[in-house]
């Protein structure tokens, strides 16, 4: 039996909005430690990893490890029916082929039960090794989202270059070129407005903007984003979920020589 | 000669927004007691009845009973040109084939006259007998609108079931099922936030969500909605218009046996 | 070498939004006195003239007169990447075939350079003679925009008639007719809310609403608009740009006799 009660139900709504356009179907894995998901995007280029730790739930009961295959689009349709202040409880009986989302309004005057069919999804869980990164940039998530959106109006790829002074985002397209430099800045009123750069080695890597823009759908989950970069490793774009866990997106850099081949089909 | 001056002109704008998607052409009936309309929707499944009593107008002159056929879409186009704070006057000369809508800005600096051609529309006025209802639910109109919209993302029909404890809205579709229960609740700060259930007999009736959603376009007219239900009678969904009258929507329940036949063409 | 630094960069963003739908490609002319543009719309019916005087820039360096051909749609794409509080600098080297737009955030933490290719555009600069107008109407720009939009839902052309008492905007279409009268009104709290009419002779002229609506895209630039009318002269619709200059739109009136021929292709 599974019963996970999340007082701040809007978090789960935001998680779904963050990943549903990237991933169609995925297994949610439940264990005593938390509620998690790992999935490739539908074109098998990007990887998303979600963790919501059990401590973040008001009530967390998971009698045995269980993996529940869900269509994220359908799950999102149901979660959209929850109010932003609703408490959300995820429930499943052992051996059942359905999951139930229960939404309670803050006043308890309105109680909704949405029951969704589960799916069998083949998936292998990739071990993601801990890695040393050449550079780690933390910046306001809204700023990062704005930059990805702006550059998309000019080109298809972004070059992210980190030096001690700042991080540079560059693109080029038919109508011209664009370079945006954000400087390290730690003397801000609110810590989440800081731009902090930890750098061991300068890096300069190229990524498809289409995926970066998709990752920024997680912006409502966190006021800052952390971008970890190393040559020849996938970039990690991480949004922390306060007191509960994170969403991490992994994307391999584009190699200059065969840029056309690796170009994602839009 | 007809001259009806409505200080709160935005009411008339909202009335048109509430019915124009349901009804294409309709006769507005003017008499000494008020300005009214009764019309079937274009697929002859739902009925809408509007009443604006003469006392609600600042000035109300109607020398003789008159029935004016209007295209509601064109009338809505004209009323959209009125400001939300404008005074609206409806004018028609005896025997004229046009009606004039006059909009006066609150400062009287801007005066607009919109003249619209009238139409000949055949219509029979249905007598709607007063009926006893098994259950009457009054609830916040925005809550009802939210529930109809939410359930539409899961299924095509809604089962409304009333018991002493509350009212339940249920649907089922390809992706699963949904049940939303609203409990009776009269201990609220504002009377319009109450959910009040008067029940003589339990009822459970099925309706097309498409029509329910259409009715909720009247939500801006009133903060509460009253739903009157009886087995084998059309449901009445009523929005009161403060100090003037009402909009009422009538819809026959779907019979389980021939559900497919009565399914509306979407 | 050209270097124009505009502290209130949002002005340039609004200028582009005002003209980019009317004009595809145009030469921006730079001289020691200012930054200007004159262009016909793509169907050669309307003329737009822009002036931003050098005094309005924080820094203005223009070593020699230069004419830079730009695709306004591409330029708009780049300027949309500037924040509303950003300082915008326009830079070009002598003989270069590119122009650079630099955006500096108020805190100087984010600096962006957008480089756009220039185009060769044939254009002749029309001398626009100073003219005496029969009537000049100054009114709130938002009111004028609202009227043009409202009348477009009824008809294709607007008749603008000026008398001492006020200005009347009229149209007619398949569904009926509309007349909107704005009265002279100078006793307002804020001068920009005034409607002021200077009239030597009554005028009544007909214009295509499609163009009028296009001109009102300049509404965010100024709280009032000035409409100058004379029989057999193009109307001038002017939006002043505070302390810098103006955007003026010129449009020939439609002649009644050959109305169908001069009707713009929509």
Automatic annotation (TrEMBL), chains A, B, C:
Keyword entries, A-Z: DNA replication, DNA-binding, Nucleus
All residue ranges annotated as the Proliferating cell nuclear antigen PCNA C-terminal domain in the record: 127-254
Organism: Quillaja saponaria (Soap bark tree)
NCBIfam families, per database record: pcna (TIGR00590)
Keyword Ribonucleoprotein: no
Classification via CDD domains: PCNA
Gene Ontology biological process terms from the UniProt entry: leading strand elongation; mismatch repair; regulation of DNA replication; translesion synthesis
InterPro entries in UniProt: DNA_clamp_sf (IPR046938), Pr_cel_nuc_antig (IPR000730), Pr_cel_nuc_antig_C (IPR022649), Pr_cel_nuc_antig_CS (IPR022659), Pr_cel_nuc_antig_N (IPR022648)
Name of the protein this chain belongs to: DNA sliding clamp PCNA
SUPFAM superfamilies per the UniProt record, alphabetical: DNA clamp (SSF55979)
Function: This protein is an auxiliary protein of DNA polymerase delta and is involved in the control of eukaryotic DNA replication by increasing the polymerase's processivity during elongation of the leading strand.
Compartment(s): Nucleus
């Amino acid at each position: 039996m599974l019963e996970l009660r999340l007082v701040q139900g809007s978090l789960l709504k935001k998680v779904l909005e963050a990943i549903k356009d990237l991933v169609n179907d995925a297994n949610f894995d439940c264990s005593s430690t938390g509620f998690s998901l790992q999935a490739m995007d539908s074109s098998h280029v990007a990887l998303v990893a979600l963790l919501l730790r059990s401590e973040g739930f008001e009530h967390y009961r998971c009698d045995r490890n269980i993996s529940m295959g869900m269509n994220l689009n359908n799950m999102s349709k149901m979660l959209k029916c929850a109010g932003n202040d609703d408490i959300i409880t995820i429930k499943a009986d052992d051996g059942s082929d359905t999951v139930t989302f229960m939404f309670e309004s803050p006043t308890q005057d309105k109680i909704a039960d949405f029951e969704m069919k589960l799916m069998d999804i083949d998936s292998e869980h990739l071990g993601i090794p801990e890695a040393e990164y050449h550079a780690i940039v933390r910046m306001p998530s809204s700023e990062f989202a704005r930059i990805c959106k702006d550059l998309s109006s000019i080109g298809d790829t972004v070059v992210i270059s980190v030096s001690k002074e700042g991080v540079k985002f560059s693109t080029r397209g038919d109508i011209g070129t664009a370079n945006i430099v954000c400087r390290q800045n730690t003397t801000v009123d609110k810590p989440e407005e800081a731009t902090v750069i930890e750098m061991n080695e300068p890096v300069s890597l190229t990524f498809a903007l289409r995926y970066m823009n998709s990752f920024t759908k997680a912006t409502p989950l966190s006021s800052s984003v952390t971008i970890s970069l190393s040559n020849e490793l996938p970039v990690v774009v991480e949004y922390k979920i306060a007191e509960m866990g994170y969403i991490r997106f992994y994307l391999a850099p584009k190699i200059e020589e065969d840029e056309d081949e690796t170009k994602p089909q839009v």
